[in-house]
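So, could you explain this one?
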Amino acid sequence: MTEMTKHFVGLLGYDKFSNLKLIELLKPEERFDESIGLMSHLLVAQQIWLKRCKGEPTVGGSLWPRWRLPDLHNTVLMNYEAWMLFLSSVEESDFMKPVTYQNSKGLSFTNSLEDVLTHLINHGTHHRAQIGQQLKAIGLTLPNTDYIFYVREESDKT
């Protein structure tokens, strides 16, 4: 596994870890409609970006779906596995190669795979922070989803 692949595998592991931690708090489902909407968006965006990276069409579907809570958990796991499969085929030089895609408005852009993956991770962090603010505002105690906490927990497993 290349160093860049290892780096992004670790970040996507963190992403999965953090998403699952927040999803655990979203019960009962009807109380957290806005947070579930944000998590649904985060997850569908991961699917769209993966298709873009693979050069597949991304037409159709909502950027803001309203998935059910059990679907969120399963989708986190499926997205992670799909990204791991994709990354297993990536060579070190591929991270600098262009990914050309159209956004939801039909505008064309080109960015390196490295930049797309960095965006993907930051996009997830951004929306998890929004969810965290919503949950904290109603008095819930948030789990520790800091990256360094994840790294420590993972190193304890080995």
In short: The two ends are 18 Å apart (CA to CA). The domain at 7-157 is CATH 1.20.120.450 (Four Helix Bundle (Hemerythrin (Met), subunit A)).
